[in-house]
Amino acid sequence: MAGWNADTGAGPLGEGAVTVLDGSSFCISSANGDMYPERPHGVFFEDTRIISRWNLMVNEAPVEPLSSKTHEPYRAVFVGRATRSDGRADSPLVVERDRHVGAGIREDITVRNFSREPAVCAITLIVETDFADLFEVKDGRVLRTWQQTKTPGNGSLTIESAREGAHRRVTVRAPGANFSQDGLSYVVVIPPRASWTRRIIVLPSFDGVAAPEPFSHENPAASSAAARRYQEWSEYTPVLHLEDDDTEQILLRSHDDLGSLRIFDPKNPGRAVLAAGAPWFMALFGRDALLTSYMTMLVDPSLALGTLQTLAELQGASVDALTEEEPGRIPHEVRRGVSARLALRGGGAYYGTADATPLFVTLLGEVSRWGLGADVLGSLLPHADRALDWITRYGDRDGDGLVEYARATDRGLINQGWKDSWDAINFADGGLAEAPIALCEVQGYVYSAFISRAVLALDTGDMELAAHWRNRAVALKKQFNERFWLPERGYYAVALDRHKRPVDACTSNMGHCLWSGIVDDEKAPLVAQRLMSDEMFTGWGIRTLASDMGAFNPVSYHNGSVWPHDNALIAAGLMRHGFVKEAQRVASAMLEAANYFDGRLPELFCGFDRKTYAQPVPYPTACSPQAWAAGTPVLLMRILLRLDPYLTTNDLWLAPVFPEGFGDFEARNVPLGTSHVSIRVSQGSVTITGLPPGIRLHREARSPLADLLDINDPDSRTHQ
User: Fold this and answer.
1) Which domains does the chain have, with CATH numbers?
2) Which of 98, 127, 336, 417 could bridge to 46 as Cys pair (CB 3.0-4.6 Å)?
3) Phi-psi region of 176 (alpha: psi -120 to 50; beta: other; left: phi over 0)
């Protein structure tokens, strides 16, 4: 999930750092709620730091932190102790900061006096902004200086700046406060056993356009845009109950995180997509959004629809070496900051990814089977066909039938699969592969795209088109199994390099090939065995790179770490091929690991063996919450339910295989087409209520989609 030409690490947030977010707006602070410009702290809006310093002083001293709690993803409450005005140590002054983030921030500051005597308090809030680009803050290198104008007024402070044709303004409002160019202050006397409260609001305005749905002093916090969206999300999405309390809490945390990671286009406010992860990737990433919305169909299929519609509007139309845009290509990343627009010639999209384009087609097929309306499907099919045309004309760079990548300039990403760090694709001896590179999982995604388009054609009765894409899929699968399989090792090469040599490292990527269906049936048992070997499976999950490989490092980003979403897709592939116990083992390991991260799976964690370390070791700069990781528990539940709708043909498969001791499971309000159903699994029995009339329920695993494509005899199209 690396940003365009960006390092994947993150600067030191500081011990006890607290992050709250609402879509692409977020705030990072220290444990007492203060923010410091020398750290990657601040309030961020549209990839810009609009507040860089936010320091609360009571009686000329910082507030001593006691606790902090994120009650909702967009809200945090900080509790601390203030210094007495007489300097004595045992202070009766307790400070509470109730912070909401959205288009700016709203903070209610309350000072409580637990003394029997009045308390004189000098309260000061120091405020600064540097309007720094998000990646400048992330990398600890704020290089550009904005010339600022500060205007204190009656109850407000306005900070304005302009650079490179962009105008930025932040207004801090606090009626009744004394304002200066450094911030605001109060001098108050708090009666015995009483409290004092004031509200402070920060409102951004970019290029003369005020932020939508701003905070106000009059409206209650529950009426904020973030609170309303969160409430609507909670009411719309399924309610999950499990006998295992720990697993239920993991799913609830996942649900909350997915809701907080949604971002909305002001031009289409009813359409949501998922940002990749907090704090540094609160933007649309094509691959991340496509995979995560696939993973979360059980919770909210509309996320997948919004992702497809948004990416269709951004689909490449011309050839541009700097942005790597090509006709039909789906973008890798979309940014809104000033630096991004300058680097990308006034735009904010970078297209350097090999896999988002085929994944677009695969997701469209999945959404169609989940009950997407024919009118919406018709508007997206031309974009799917353009994506398939990109695969043939641009993705297959040398005409050999495989999709390769090589960055167009030295400013683009070196590696353009999901493992996009510079050293992620290497040989068994640790040597780096050179581009153009054909990744194994990308061929699997392309195979899945071909199958999906064939099935979409079959659903509309276009037998000729269905046969065309089926034949393309068959040919690709044959070539893949001939060129990527390493018979002497019993697994697939991670890639082919510029010389078409197999890159022979043993990686988790081949698990994605199980998921896509490109693996030959006779090879699948060997792949499953290798994935579950001691070199790959840590006990907490499957490593990205086997421990007997030359580049293995359990504390690396992609060369030996454990990624939850990677494991979820592998579990889906194992289940697809009938390796039920192996899929259960991976799912159980992921859920157990989540318990050590307060119920929230991080982007990744270190790949140490469970026999050596009794709990998973955190990766120091992992995003949390992160979209893929938040989607992992949801996909694991779907995998264990073996839930597969095909509403185009009025079929639904449901055949749960929960691990032993998992206990009862209930999901209410599960979206299915235009209806909602409830599913209950108890002591081996399965009950589903609310199923629309005419839907055939199959209490067994669905056979692969490729098995449905008997083009020569359409009347034989049956579901096993």
Assistant:
1) 18-221 (2.70.98.40), 237-647 (1.50.10.10), 648-716 (2.60.420)
2) 336
3) left
